[in-house]
Amino acid sequence: EPEEKKIALELLETEQAYVSRLHLLDQVFYTELMKEAKTGKTVPEEVVKMIFSNISSIYQFHAEFFLPELRKTGEDWNHNPRIGDVIQKLAPFLKMYGEYVKNFDKAVELITAWSEKSPPFQELIADIQRRKVCANLTLQHHMLEPVQRIPRYELLLKDYVRKLPPQSPDRGDAEKALEMIFMVAKHSNAAIAEMERLQNLWVVYQRLGLEDDIVDPSNELIKEGPIQKISTRNNSTSEKYLFLFNNMLLYCVPKVIQVGAEFQVHLRMDVEGMKVRELKDTEFPHTFLVSGKQRTLELQAR
User: Fold this and answer.
1) Which Pfam families does the record match to this protein (predicted)?
2) Disulfide-capable partner of 214 in 85, 197, 205, 302 (CB 3.0 to 4.6 Å)?
3) pLDDT of residue 284
4) Domains of the chain, residue spans
5) Which CATH number fits domain 221-300: 3.10.50.30, 2.30.29.30, 2.10.70.10, 3.40.50.2300?
6) What is the pLDDT of residues 116-127, one digit of tens each?
């Protein structure tokens, strides 16, 4: 059989297995946990919703649209060998994976935290996991499947395009479909990167003990590190710490007793209008001057 047909069949077979996995997540785990949550004995309903994110929409899309369309192409293959047009038509819907992927780490944390807090919740999950349909795998393991699905489409399609004969009627469509899947994967990766960036901001915010706009999503941490502050009055240096964001420089002092925050913010300088000038100081090498609207600092790097 032609190589491209084998790949098209593999796509169909893996999609069938994937829809079964989605059915397990949405119709078994989510439905049963939600039912229990409504009784008020295990966890709040909100927690269950947060764990499963938009899994119901993903399941519905694959079970009712994607899989039936792929089945149709399999049946028509002998007189119309193509999958490119189908994937093109359905690829835009795969953007909904961004939300699921972005939520994944938080979902796993919630499962762990609530399993410790609520024994009935833990017991219900363990009960479902013991069923044959779970194949001895954990809920977390099954939840990873949607995260890995888009990269899997990308690999299969790449392979499919590579194996297609140059004159194949599906070449143009398949190449366009691959491009679209690539964009969806990028969208999914961007969602992960954005989530990590906000988590890093949150960590910095906790280290600084600030309760204001550091966690503004438009803020970006560029660099951080220790620095020496030069005191011209008594010709000495003292240890300080800098956080450089895209819009501000935070000049901090490490706390001696680290309870709660790690640093105390002494000065916040706007990046706008800030000037940095290197100094040629023989006594203090690697020194530079940072001057902004708020103040001028003489600093020494390592």
Assistant:
1) RhoGEF, SOS1_NGEF_PH
2) 205
3) 85
4) 3-207, 221-300
5) 2.30.29.30
6) 999 999 999 999
- Class of 3-207 per CATH? mainly alpha
Q: Which amino acid is residue 188, in one-letter code?
A: S
From CA 226, how far away is CA 170, in angstroms rounded?
Answer: 58
pTM over 0.90: no
- Residue 212's nearest CA partner among 222, 221, 201 is 201
Q: Which amino acid is at 143?
A: M
Location of structure tokens 């706008």: 272
Tokens 């939520």 -> residue: 103
The structure tokens listed for 219 are 């803020």
List the one residue out of 299, 134, 48 whose CA is nearest residue 56.
Answer: 48
Of 52, 47, 81, whose CA–CA distance to 174 is shortest?
81
**pLDDT tens digits, 37-58:** 999 889 999 999 999 999 999 9
